[in-house]
Amino acid sequence: MFWFLLACHELAPTEPSAGPPPFGMVLANDNQLYAGVGSIDISPTVTETFTDLDADGEFDGCVNDPLGPDSSRPGCDEPFDDVNGNGYFDAIWIAGYGERRAATGVSDPLYARAVVLSLNGEYVALVGVDSVGLLESRVRQARLLLDAEGFEMDRVLVSSSHSHQSPDVVGIWGDTTALYTGINQEYIESLPPAIHDAVAMAAGSMVPVSPVVGTVATGEIDPDLNGTLFGGTSPNPHQIGTIDDLRDPIIVDDQLVGMAFDGPDGRLVTIMSFASHPETIGDRNTEVSADYVGFMRDTVEASQGGLAVFLSGALGGMMSAVTSILPALDDQGAKVTDAAGDTVWVEGESWELARSQGILLGQAVPLALTDSQPWTKIAVRSQPLLVPVSNVFYQVAFRTGLLDSKLEDLDTSTDCPGYGTDPNVLGCVPTGIWRVELGPATLATMPGELLPELFYGVPDDPAMADASLRSEDRRWDEHDPDCNDVPWADCKDVESVGDCDCLHYHAEPYVHATDGTPIIREMLPGTYRAPIGITNGYCGYLVPDPDFNTYVSQLTDDGDHYEETNSCSPSFTPLLLEAWVLLTEGSG
Question: What is the 3-state secondary structure (H, E, C) of 533-552?
């Protein structure tokens, strides 16, 4: 075990003598489950826009020259509206895909939505935020605001949806070449108070509720959502349950989690979690949006009533629908067919693809809601985790002030693994993991984008162990046959070995870990177990350590190993798994 991981922390029920509950929340010891909801609009105000002369969705001007092509400066090809006259483009930069995607407006609202649950003195706040990924230091601000008013910060879990059509809250989608951060300071500073207000609103409006929970595998509900290689009819042979895994091997988290709570006036709220990048609209869009998540919430609210709250899942791998081919839907959400009665398909990054994915998933949520047994417990446990920052790109972003996090936010104590002994470690991001038992369900949080095999395990397919079988296996789309006789150990730190393209080769055997550490799901109690991604921190991708290619970076080609270029450290996953072992061992 890693000695620097501190012991897990189990939160005790709040005693009546501890004083009035914060925000007037209900903390009764009466075996009754209570819930409250809060929703705050966090859509940005877009005041300065640009003229996209080449219609590529990217600002091709100079951030300090509003004249664009009328300027005498070379390379300033597009103008921007300098509304405040300060000579700088005070844009809302959109996160995800490439840099310099400046917003021209807001298509649909973004939200911070909270659900507060309590049972016999135990309570927890689950917050879903339409954000690409709030960094730990910013989430901590919101949690500290609540803690100061008596709502324990370790009971606040903030999950970012990872929308690639939302404002940059990390800092790397402005213009890194010009060292121009993507952070809009006014916007980013509005988020902790918004999260606080959503939780306060939820805590102050609690009513007795009855729960209904469950999960459904979206790949099993409709053959049109699967590709032909996985028993379906979609023209994309590789997709499963609307998702196409863009990294070999194809291991998809198609589990849709549903948790609904009915109060005296009917449905109060539905919480849902799914693992797919909200990037379906594409990289040419310049309007802020929640992507498919917004369509999914609207569908659930229209059919079920109440508020819909979205929490992200195991997004790594990566789970995405950008290359999926989905059924087209009419205005009522029914499938469109042609004159011969065949399904009409939607493909290619677009608003229509996002709409189809969101509505189809929203229609599937009621199928997950099957277990209405009364809850007997809420239990919250946490485990600290220090994540080393050895990624060179992240280090540059820290040192140059691009990030929405400062050098002083890093842990540089002897507890930080590698700091002071490994020159590649700048310091550690202080974050953690949480295990939340909610009746028969258990949520497991991750401070990043988890590859699903770390939670669910690796399929028992022969090609996982034998690379020579991969060219004909349905899960291996990118495999380079020239690597069949090359040991993975010779390939994982270089670009190529002879004719073998190591950037399109994966570990042989392909396993989630080599040291016998169990998959996370096996370390959790409960009937329904689910990973919740990008929660209370964001450190990039969590890649299985045996498959981590250390050659790739932001300065190299990455082939089928893109995720490594956006991970804080190769040790991120081993440290996370060790944290889960420690939390499990401390369960008592």
Answer: CCECCCCEEECCHHHCCCCC
Cα separation, 322 vs 309, in Å, equals 23
With a threshold of 0.90, does the pTM exceed it? Answer: yes
CB atoms within 10 A of CB 72: 7
In order of 53, 219, 229, 242, 280, the CA distances from 233 in angstroms are 40, 11, 9, 12, 20
Residues forming a β-bridge with 156: 125
Task: Encode pLDDT of 35-48 as tens digits.
Answer: 999 999 999 999 99
pLDDT digits (tens, 9 = 90+) for 445-492: 999 999 999 999 999 999 999 999 999 999 999 999 999 999 999 999
| Dihedral sign (CA 176, 177, 179, 185) | negative
Query: Cα-Cα-Cα-Cα dihedral of 337, 343, 348, 354, to 10°?
Result: 70
Within 10 angstroms of residue 199's Cβ, the number of other Cβ atoms is 32
Alpha carbon separation from 485 to 58, 295, 461, 488, 500 (Å, rounded): 43, 47, 19, 9, 9
Tokens of 128: 């879903």
Decide: helix, strand or coil at residue 579. helix
CA 69 to chain centre: 39
